[in-house]
Amino acid sequence: MSLTDTAPQARRRDLRIPLAAILVVAALAAPFIGTRYVTHSLIIALIFMLPAHGLNLLVGYTGLLSLAQAAFFGIGAYTAGLLAVHYDTPFYVNLLAAGLVSGLLALPLGIPALRLRATSFVMCTLGFVIIGQAIAKNWISVTRGDMGLSGIPKPYFELGPLSFTVTGTTSFYYLALAVAALGTLAAWAIVRSPAGRNMVAIRENETLAESLGVPTWRYKLIVFMISAAFAGVGGSLYAHYLTVVSPLTFQMYYSTTMLIIVLGGGAGMISGTVFGSLLFVGLTEALRVAPEVRMIAYGFCLLVLVFWFKKGFAPLINRFWNAIGGSK
Amino acid sequence: MNAHLPILEIKNLSKSYGAVKAVNDVSMHINRGEIAGLIGPNGSGKSTFFDCSTGLARPDTGKVVLDGQDITGWSLNRIAREGRMLRSFQKTVTFKALDVEENLIIAGQMFTFPTLASTFGLGKLSRSRIAALRERARELIKMAGLWDVRHQPAGNLSGGQQKLIQFASMLMPEPKLILLDEPMAGINPKIIERVVDTIQYANKSLGVSFLVIEHNIDVVTSICQRVVVLDQGAKLVEGLPHDIIQDQRVREAYLGG
Amino acid sequence: MFSTLLEQVVNGIVTGSVYAIVAVGMTMIFGVLRAINFAHGEYYMLGTFGAWFATDYLGLSYEASIVVGVLSTVVVAYVVGQLVMRRMVGAPAESGVLATLGVALILQNTVIFVFGGGYKFFSGGYIEPVSILGFTLAEQRIIILVVCLLVFVGLELMVTYSRLGMAMRAVSQNVECCGVVGIDVPQVVLRTFVLGAALAALSGVLTAPVNVSVYGGMGELITFKTLPIIIMGGLGNVRGTFVAAMILGIAESLVATYIGLQYRDTVGFATLILMLMWRPHGLFSTQARF
After folding, report:
1. Tell me, what's the ipTM?
2. CATH number at residue B47
3. What residues in chain A have their Cβ under 8 A from chain B's Cβ atoms?
4. Where is the ABC transporter domain (chain B) (predicted)?
5. What ranges do the domains of chain A cover?
């Protein structure tokens, strides 16, 4: 499981670079290949990829099972929505603000929550979602309650003399693709850094990590904040894409969806989360599965992942990647 | 930092769990460059004493002074990181899913990266630091005789090999002092020899001081220069290993007299 | 002023009784399995739906619908127990969370898929008001109070004297030893789970005439309300659960009257979070299980 070693010599041809190139081209050409609905499905998958990356850092790398992701997703969505509606700020400001607000709010929420163990921590994080929804419903002067925020403008940019608005589905796709790609890169950078190794150490054995000088408490708090920031960024995209935000953005079902992406794709693996978003969100959206049926399917996915398919698609992705990388 | 001062000094340490006085007013010290032993029957308070000295538990009263610095109340990770005093565990030994090399690199990381923020870096400096750690890890892996299995997940190796990994891990940060909690428990005699060799190598060549809890009396007499005996939470006697094993009070304590 | 307060307290006790019957099953399951059942409220929903189906489609009486509601839930719980809950013995806490979340999704959405997501009207039950000691209460609420007391007395007796009760206590004390002395742990888990689900269903059927509306998402709300109760009661502690349920019931009723109806449903989780911060092991001992 070395993180850096590569095969000493390849006798067979290494197909990884060509494959990566094909994937990049496919991602760029997608709106012209599929229908508009397919593009829409991909956008939804890309939006969910961001909170899922955050959750993967928390669950997959640091080993903390959290259901709070939907709460931070909702906070991000409302932050971006409120800024856009009231102050007419450009998209990137809303996006950064959403990430920042979610990430910073995770600090006071994380301090008490992370003192709890296993199931208690899970329940506390679930509580954040429920209380978040209650606040969104009842703080009517700000959130407009059940009516939600509507009329959130399409993303617009103001870069010096150049300013433009992202209107169509295709252009929004490229925006979401860019943000998701940056998010993926950021997540990758975090797990490849020495801090990523410390996170894995905490997951594997917290006391041992602690005894080797790793400040586990601070790492857990930082990762909790980073994961919330990822969710917030995803929430801002969501708000701008749908142009409405309602208290239903805070729902358990979203947290569950993000968990399925992470666990199904393969926890503790960046490519697993990318794959999981496309498979579990993109595909179900593209197939126009009815919401109830999708949730039933998610329920079965969870059971299968817990009892039979514990590592998700991670081993398959690894094997495939090694196979096309040429034999040793 | 006077060379003649003890590396670790523990003064009047007490710890109670409810009505049970697990450790009662124990004082001891470890000299620079020494291998000291801590023995005593089961339930004599050795482990509690260890936990309180290393920050895993908080002592009720007493003082822990490491290399002239009062570290009472510091957390386990801070004592390790800033004090360079490391400890082993009886059961918790390795990061099982990670390979041997990664295990050692993790052990060294917190000592080469000055701040928490710097651990998130991926730049050239960060890479060169990790490369240096890998270099050192490989040396220690060779020394511990684990070269052939260095890319295997630690969890796949035998209990004895995992103890050696733990041992090598603790040497990564160039520690001042290592506290070992029953390092020989549950490993076969062949590995015991290797662990003994490693302790002596670390002591002589790297200048690491040791405090060892151990039940294997042969090991204690062969490596320790001085032994402290605990019984029922209090210090019973302290002296040279040979005197200790002949001490009547020690025998009675072990026989439950 | 004072009479309103008293009336709200009585209402709170009735609500508390509903929660208590659901929560006691959940806490017993925790006792034997060391896992929180996030799907527990769904059995409450299933019981209600079974009874609604019996009265609305089959034209049965309310009394018969109680039987149909509880029995159909028992069948579902037996299947879930065999396929899922038994596997959770000895599994890490996280697996239990994920598996029961999965079960909740499946049960809830299957019902929505079959019967539609809208609100349904429950028409059975005894809703005539009666006057006792100056209070006016619907008959159904009195039935709920009586059944709740009977359930708790019955459980106390069962846990103390019956074979299953003793096995449950044994499993909750020490799982490893049970294997040694020949107690079939998965079997005890299965029976406890089916019993807990049946109680949740009973609670649902009894409440349906008071709540009037029946819908697929109702179980989730009940799960979220019983979670704080079982934590507050000291996980696995039956008597503590009873007291905690009453406290939450009364607190909700007072909050709804004096602060605002819209805050009622957050009382539980706000309490839960404060609880977890302040006393993670509940107000009552977790040692005094059952």
Report:
1. 0.90
2. 3.40.50.300
3. 1-3, 5, 189-190, 192-195, 197-198, 200-201, 204-205, 207-216, 218-219, 222
4. 8-257
5. 35-250
